Amino acid sequence: MLYIKCPHCGLRPQTEFSYGGDATVKRPELNKEISDQDWDNFVYLRKSPRGKHLELWQHISGCRQWIKVERDTLTHEIFTTYKASENI
Amino acid sequence: MPENFRLDKGGLVNRNKKISFTFNGKKYFGYEGDTLASALLANGVHLVGRSFKYHRPRGFFGAGVDEPYAIVQMNRNNEIDPNVRATEQELFEGLEAKSVNCWPNVDFDIGAINNFLNKFFPAGFYYKTFMWPKSFWYKIYEPIIRKAAGFGAASIKHDKERYEHKYEYCDLLIAGSGPSGLASAYAAAQNGARVILAEDKSRFGGSLLTSEVTIGNQSGQEWAEKIISELKSMPNVVVKNRSQVFGYYDHNMLVMSERVSDHLPKTDKYIPKQRLWYIRAKEVVISSGSIERPLVFGNNDAPGVMLSSAAKEYLKIYGVLVGKKPIIFTNNDSGYETGIEFKKNGIDPIILDTRKDASSEIIKEAKELNINIKFSYVVVAAKGYKKVNSADIARISDDKKNLSNIENIKCDCICVSGFWTPSIHLASQSGNKTKFNEEIDAFIPSQSKQKETTLGAANGVFTLEETLKTSFEKGSELSKQITNKENKVSVPTVVEKKPSSHDKFWCVPLPEGKNYKRFLDFQNDVAVSDIQLALREGYRSIEHVKRYTTLGMATDQGKTSNLNGLQLVSDVENKVVPQVGHTTFRPPYTPVSIGAIVGREVGKHSKPTRKSPMHYWHEKNNAVFVDAGVWLRPRYYKQGNENLFEASKREAKNVRQNVGVCDVTTLGKIDIKGPDAAEFLNRVYTNAWLKLPVGKARYGVMLREDGIVMDDGTTTRISENHYHMTTTTAQAANVLSHLEYYLQLVWPELNVNVVSSTEQWAGAAIAGPKSREVLQKLFPDLDVSNEGLPFMGYMEGNLFGVNAKIFRISFSGELAYEVNVESDNGNYMWEKILEIGKEFNIQPYGTEALSTLRIEMGHVAGSELDGRTIPYDNSLEGLVSKKKDFIGKRSLSKSAYVEIDRQKIVGVVPLDKKTSIPEGSYIVKDAKAKLPNPKLGHVSASCWSVEYDNPFSLAIIKDGKNMIGQKLFAMSPLKNKTIPVEIVSSHYVDPKGERVRS
Amino acid sequence: MQKYSVFSLIKNAFTGHKDWEVAWKDPAPKAEYDVIIIGGGGHGLATAYYLAKEHNITKVAIIEKGWIGGGNVGRNTTIIRSNYMHDENGLFSEFGMDLWRNMSLDLNFNVMFSPRGIINLAHSDAQMNAYSRRGNSMRLNGIDAVLLNREEVKKIIPMADFSENVRFPIFGGLMQPSAGTARHDAVAWGYARQADSMGVDIIQNCEVTGFDVVNGKILGIRTSKGEIKAKKIGLCVAGSTNVLAEKLNMTLPIETHLLQACVSEPIKPILDHVVTFGAGHFYCSQSDKGEMVMGGDLDGYNSYAQRGNLPTLQHVLTEGIAMFPFLSKLKMLRTWGGIMDMSMDGSPIIDKTHIEGLYLNCGWCYGGFKATPASGWTFAHTIAQDKPHKLNEGYSLNRFSTGHLIDEKGLGTKTWIS
Question: Which residues from chain B sit within 8 angstroms of residue C70, using beta carbons?
């Protein structure tokens, strides 16, 4: 079971969190012209590297904050965790 | 029957407490402290089971977790345990066990015919035959094979035993209480570290219990006892026996199963049978020791052939002789220890040593004891079917290729030692890339991936002196890093016998003209010839070998077979072992009871059940409940002999004619506050929200970014910056996370907070033409007239002393209100509504009537919003703003979503106005078309329209917009139904929505 | 090639099984092939087999990083079914069922296809309706399906929990009688043996390190065993698709996730069918060895580690006991993990790509094993004809742009929710 350091609460077991996928996906701005392809890329394309992966988790049974976690998808090692507001 | 093989004295069993037990219906005696295996051996019982494939007789091979044979079925505490390892099961009074995988009995097993036909059943034979004719595999061959499969028979009764979980954190978890475990635990404990020391057996001490060593001025066993009692007295140490650390998972999470009650005849009331420990450790010490390797020779699977270390353990711990005429067959010094132990107890062993010559202290001791030692000698084949009665032995040439001087000698057991295999399972599970150690011909841990340290024999260190030294050091060092304390522990002096080096030879060649089976995997009957065949056929990767032959896939997971298999593959392939590589070690190290893994979440507790504050009222009033997500909701309230159909019709009708009340507590509720709340809602919902006045509610639809409808519900503006959102019961949690996602990650500039308030409010929907009258009586001081509280209006009131929120919203399509009070007052509110409503013929209604009401009104719900539909499909396009942007809007322009004949919701009425259309039917043009019959769409919801007294359904069908008036068919082949239908508007009742505004 | 039969088995028994030939050879790669299939799993091997058999294209190499059959075909729960609601999935899978039924004879290798029937349990009327929707769709597509009520289910699997003390009572179930299981390793080996006999080179322990793409056209691959040229290249590496796509500068609508499964110790036969739990995600069957084969949810985060964590299995087994209380007394013997290509609508992709000569077969989620023959068959067709077969037209890459998604579960792009 992963041990995730919530930047707000500290180390907590994975069972307190829910997963949110690729954290590098950026939602296009509202009311902005965007091509079909760019939009589809936003909706459907995900980074899924073997190795370092920046991903979202929500501390759902804790502070309910969404956080960003840099984790290795091959070894599951977690390098750093960030608050939602931190830009990486 | 008296025991024949128990020594008069010696061993650690409690000879003052005699225990009776039965095996295969026969009564025997043993002592407290015995295992089932040791007690049977004391009684001279060697035949315990049959092998998997050939049904060859099976005895005991080991004395612990490595045991590949001795699996029995037990009856304990009036419960059946199908596969119990006799070498691990401690004896208790009245224990009942029997053999498995044999019929009619272990002595005479019909299945053994396989053994005589074994030449037709080499590895993988089943891949080459049973193919023709086509259906025979499934109909004829497979049932026969299946019948023969499996060991114990499971009972289909519910397991009445109790299993618990425990979550624990510690500085050091130490797996194994042998010398390395004890020393590291002791050193760490001295530094103040929180230590958990786990031992899978009932006795602590590991190899110290059976080895002839001196530590300080004590015997190994005395020293172990002293250390353990000291550790037990320390508050920072948890010492657990009967506890197997079986899994090393991510981020230093280890899992241990503790067999709390298995050694007792009964499980006490407040004690579990087993306990599963999830342990998060800062550091892990793996001190799991090593397992002796078998030597491989002809018929080496016969009962009576066993590991020399096991024979020694039976002698030293249980005072049991595994035989009275033993052959010790060894390629290293370990066999001598067993031989000497026999000799000391008055038994004359013969030691066959594969080495040409060897000298060491222990060999010298054996010689001095006049033990018959034959160097350059091997066992060629064991003789005897159900029990070894003699052995063919031979001199082996220096190059280990040729046998000579073959002779048969009498014996009743053959104790083999092919050197030691470190138990690297946990280290490997942790991600440690193991390395091959040439010196010991085995893999040992190398670079750690996680915080793990392997010590002692598990790390390939076989001398006590070095083990203790490094273990004290490591224990101290690891704990010091955590506690910043250092209390030096002095390493005691050790007296042990220095061993000579072992012989790499392990597999005895076949003598000319003989075709003995030489087994590697004893349970699965994998012989040397099987591996050779697999390699010959091109199954050369070790994974292919394993899968083709089933090597190492039995319940012992290859603890005694894997390494020999590897050596054989590398020999045949002319490779070195590390090139071949081992298969992956995965948890569990030993099989773990599924009951323990699951713990208490069984029966009604398998998932939490949520109940509304009015639940007990519903129960008292004959509600029949239905699962709605994790909630239980009344489906209908049964009156007399009514069935679901009659009751829901009555309830729905009463809503249409008078007034009904429905418990809507389960709806998700989210409190939304902040100056940007309106803007936020405007982005979340498809419709416009900026101009919603205070005191008004609005219906909204929200999409996922892919344009699919996610949820719907009403949101009410309570005050300037305060909104109350409702969601469907099923989506409540998802919607909250969804909102939090956008607020925290996408639009952090919005000053809005959201919090779930589902549990805070109990809700009752009062619906029907007389609902206003009920409401007025509930709130006599309020103006609830159509002007005072118009459709989609909101006000707060006082309901006989409790604060209430009143929403004029409707799901039923009738004039309706929803009243919310704080949860604690829910039942009070509910009873008041029913009391007040009595004069208006109010009746409670359940989800079934609710469905009827919404379906005939054409209101969509979960069966339409199924994660595959866009607003248009549900006739919700009117709620999709063209002016503003919102979540998912951009996706709505996808070509499939704007196709001219895009699917749309319609109403469906059977032409005969009688036949109900089963939900899940499909609408087709031609009921007799050839399959696959093109489908226009499916029937999502059906009801009996109480308004028109005929069946009515909703369907989402292709080009629904232009289908109104068409005569088509609803087909449910599952129910053998083809129903001619007419397509009508989905708004079957009150299409203009006048009632809700009345 | 030697023919396998009971007669050849007996004959060889008398010569000590010394004369069996290799099932497939271990050749060094040639300089050039007509088609290279990357990935020696079930789908890759089947594709090569059908290329040779159906399209007479035999200058084919299978390039496998490790050993053949080592991916998901070697680590699954062996369930074979076509009980899909969407037409694309249903018709595709049902075509596969026919191939399964004939596979042992076709390959002269007993893959032990065993149509023991699958039952999806329903625990509410709403779920019965959802299953009706699925079952009716199957029937209208010519696929066998039966809706069972509680009593009928009880007759077939009396060991399921029909007691009072149950959180989710069994209302009934949807059964596909012709669904079943097969011996997974045998499928890989059987295809390999036949493909090899028709001239396909099976090249193991050969890692693809790069692609040669010039002017939008594929020319070959670079591997740990040197450069290999090819006119066409098929990517068949579910689980590693994203790793190879990265080398092609492609991003795909696929996330890589971990799915665990486990078996119990063998017990005497107790369960003859494949059964799935409706109030969660758990499936179970009993192997011919007697082991209960069980699986359920994904571990729920992107992963390439073929190792999972216990809480997921705990959750899965909790549902297992809720369905079959007898499981409590069994022991979990072995666990393993497989890496899944989770596509954004839960359905696979078999299509051409924007690179000429490069074909894609991926996104199988946890349904890849059953699809092995149909996937190989249609992928071979797509490669040979340079256009999809009717059966895999729906599995196009551009469905994510057009909106013609095939979402059996209606869960959208959160692939980790199962």
Answer: 541, 543
Best CA proximity match to B308, nearest among B297, B292, B323: B292
Of residues C267, C321, C407, nearest to B153 (C-beta): C267
Kindly indicate the confidence band of residue B987, based on its pLDDT and cuts at 50, 70 and 90.
Answer: very high
Whole-number Cα distances in Å, B228 to B11, B93, B114, B178, B515 = 19, 28, 50, 11, 51
B280 and A3 in contact by Cβ < 8 A? yes
Which H helix or E strand runs over C401? helix C399-402
* A30 within some domain: no
Say whether residue B705 is in contact with chain A using an 8 A CB cutoff. Answer: yes
**pLDDT at residue B1 tops 70:** no
What does the pLDDT look like over B85-130, one tens digit per residue?
A: 999 999 999 999 999 888 888 888 888 888 888 888 899 999 999 8
Residue B364 above 90 pLDDT? yes
H helices present in B821-876, as ranges: 826-837, 847-857
Listed residues B418, B448, B478: the one ending a domain: B418
Query: pLDDT per residue over B450-462, tens digit each?
Result: 999 999 999 999 9
Instruction: Work out the percent of chain B whose per-residue pLDDT is above 90.
Output: 91
Whether A19 sits inside 8 A of C311 (CB atoms) is no
Which residue segment(s) compose the domain that A5 sits in? Answer: 1-25+49-88
> Closest-CA residue in chain A for B167?
A13
Task: Determine contact, residues B451/B474, Cβ cutoff 8 Å.
Answer: no
B387 touches chain A (CB under 8 A): no
- Nearest by CB to A44, which of C253, C300, C309? C253
Q: How far apart are CA B523 and CA B257, in angstroms?
A: 24
- Residue B103 has a pLDDT of 80
C115 touching chain B per CB within 8 A? yes
Q: Is B513 on the interface with C (CB under 8 A)?
A: no
Which chain A residues touch C243 with a CB distance below 8 Å?
49-50
Tell me which chains share at least 3 CB pairs under 8 Å with chain C.
A, B
Alpha carbons B813 and B854: distance in angstroms, whole number? 7
How far apart CA B880 and CA B889 sit, in angstroms, is: 9
> CB C255 to CB A73 under 8 A?
no
Question: Does residue B70 belong to any structural domain of this protein?
Answer: yes
pLDDT in tens, B320-337: 999 999 999 999 999 999
Does the distance separating the beta carbons of A44 and C344 come in below 8 Å? yes
Supply the range of the domain harboring residue B394: 294-418
Residues in chain C closer than 8 A to A71 (CB atoms): 301
Residue B648 has pLDDT above 60, yes or no: yes
Q: Quickly list DSSP for B585-643.
A: P-S-SS-EEHHHHHTT--GGGGS--B--TTHHHHHHTTEEEEEETTEEEEEEE--TT--
Task: Based on the fold, state whether residues B780 and B837 are members of the same structural domain.
Answer: yes
Q: What is the pLDDT of residues C372-397, one digit of tens each?
A: 999 999 999 999 999 999 999 999 99
Residue type, B669: K
Query: Residue A50's closest chain C neighbor by CA?
Result: C304
In our burial notation (b when 16+ CB lie closer than 10 A, e otherwise), range B378-389 reads bbbbbbbebbbb
Question: Are C112 and B142 inside 8 Å of each other by CB?
Answer: yes
Domain count, chain B: 6
**Residue from A44, A47, A78 whose CB has the most chain C CBs within 10 Å, to mutate:** A44
For B278-329, the pLDDT digits (tens) are 999 999 999 999 999 999 999 999 999 999 999 999 999 999 999 999 999 9
Structure-token match 């019709």, residue found: B649
Domain-ending residue, one of B418, B444, B470: B418
Shared domain check, B371 and B330: yes
Report the CATH number that the domain containing residue B301 is assigned in CATH: 3.50.50.60
Cα–Cα distance for residue pair C349/C362, rounded to 1 Å: 5
